[in-house]
Amino acid sequence: MAERPTARIQISSESGYHSPQLDVDIRLNTNESPFPPPPGFVEAVARAALTVDWNRYPDRSARHLRSALAQRYDVTPEQVFAANGSNEVLQSLLLAYGGAGRSVAVFEPTYAMYSQIARTTGTRLVQGRRATDFSLDSSSARQLVLDERPDVVILCSPNNPTGTPAANGLVADLEKAVGSYGGLLVLDEAYGEFASESAAGLVSEDRCVVVSRTFSKTWAMAGARLGYLIAPTWCVAELEKVALPYHLDALKLEVGVLALGYVDAMRERVERLVAERERMATALDGLAVTTWPSAANFILLRPDSRPGREVWQDLVERSVLVRDFTTMPGLEECLRVTIGSRVENDMFLDALREVLR
Ligand SMILES: *Cc1c(COP(=O)(O)O)cnc(C)c1O
Predict the structure, then answer these.
(1) From CA 61, how far away is CA 54, in angstroms rounded?
(2) Which top CATH class is 9-37+264-356?
(3) What is the pLDDT of residues 57-111, one digit of tens each?
(4) Helices (H), ranges, the chain
(5) 112 has pLDDT over 70
(6) Is the shortest distance between the CB of 156 and ligand 1 below 6 Å?
(7) Residue 216 CB less than 6 A away from ligand 1
(8) CA-31 nearest atom, ligand 1
């Protein structure tokens, strides 16, 4: 065989994003919704599939979906960009505003896809640090931004995998700093519905703030791959230049609009999950683990007296899968459990009690 071509250096050193998909009874590792979509939704999707012009390319401007989202956030359709999951939104942002000779700042420990997408898009990564309790102090975040002047700053709020919401005033201070030199502030609100605050209302034409959201977590639609960005028109116009033509398939365009007809069901699920989160937090307080306050649909925990990896393995043996962060810098020995249904959470808690004994 001829000599094998090698991939670009930035990506060849990287193993990619991995969350093992194991065959277990209780899957609490990827922050999915434990509930299927509301009754009637899948039937409506099936009906929509019958009306799609499958031999034609879909509406490239995603007009209908963007209008529906615009209405929900009280912005114009030109202030909405949609993509195949919010990961693709983030990738589009770095394709447009990052790349060679440019930089992106993140605050570790945070969502691992930021550094991965920085690498694949050739964007230099600037890593700020959160405090040991994972809070992010406004003045140190601001200082990092003013020193480095990154083209893009990504703040995950609530932060994955720690659950930490942005402190009061942090977004305003970051916006001021980033806006002072012409940078872009990206707020990743993948878990925004579970938190009490959102920055979606800040988006306007003369501000540098954009807000990313997804149907994957709250909307029980991880399988549909749909995310979106609320952003000024000028930003959306740039993202459209880097998106592939017809990147959203015809059925997905319908699926997103249909989902927005179930806002009440979505809210009701969020309330149930938030109540379960508080119940789980209380139960975990009584066990030999350290936890941190979460504003999302998961809780980060660190076993006090056993190595995290052993606890993870013992849970898998009891058919419970949580996320292993034990080797991630800043998260040593930590595991993250997604809030599931009441039954799943009880099974997790029972298994954890046994494992910690
Ligand atoms: C899950 C997640 C996403 C991406 O989800 P998609 O399924 O691609 O929409 C983005 N950001 C954070 C912080 C997440 O946890």
Answers:
(1) 17
(2) alpha beta
(3) 999 999 999 999 999 999 999 999 999 999 999 999 999 999 999 999 999 999 9
(4) 9-12, 41-51, 63-73, 86-97, 113-120, 138-148, 170-179, 233-242, 250-259, 263-285, 308-317, 342-356
(5) yes
(6) yes
(7) yes
(8) 1
Phi, psi of 185 (to 5 degrees): -100, 115
Query: Exposed, middle or buried, 330 (CB in 10 Å: 0-12/13-18/19+)?
Result: middle
Q: Is the pTM for the entire model greater than 0.85?
A: yes
- For the ranges 176-190, 216-230, 234-248, 278-292, the lowest mean pLDDT is seen at 216-230
Eight-class DSSP state of 159: P
Token readout for 93 is 């942002």
- pLDDT given for residue 13 in this prediction: 54
C-alpha distance from residue 162 to each of 39, 107, 298 (Å): 32, 12, 8
Copy the structure tokens of residue 208: 């540098």
111 lines ligand 1 (CB under 6 A): yes
Question: Residue 214 C-alpha to ligand 1 middle, in angstroms?
Answer: 7
Closest by CA position to 264, among listed 252, 272, 276: 272
Among 87, 221, 228, which is best to mutate for testing ligand 1, by the most ligand atoms less than 8 A from CB? 87
Segment among 13-17, 85-89, 248-252, 302-306 with least mean pLDDT:
13-17
Mean pLDDT (whole number) for 305-333? 96
CB of 98 within 6 A of ligand 1: the answer is no
d(CA 91, CA 120): 9
Domain boundaries, the chain: 9-37+264-356, 39-262
Task: Please tell me the CATH code under which domain 39-262 is placed.
Answer: 3.40.640.10
- pLDDT, tens digit (0-9, with 9 covering 90-100), for 222-237: 999 999 999 999 999 9
Per the listing, tokens 């964007």 go with 123
Ligand 1 atom at minimum distance from 225 CA: 7
What phi and psi, each to the nearest 5 degrees, are found at residue 94?
A: -80, -25
- 21-30, 45-54, 270-279: segment of lowest average pLDDT: 21-30
How far, in Å, CA of 99 to CA of 94, rounded?
7
Q: Is 228 in the pocket of ligand 1 (CB under 6 A)?
A: no
The position carrying tokens 């709020």 is: 157
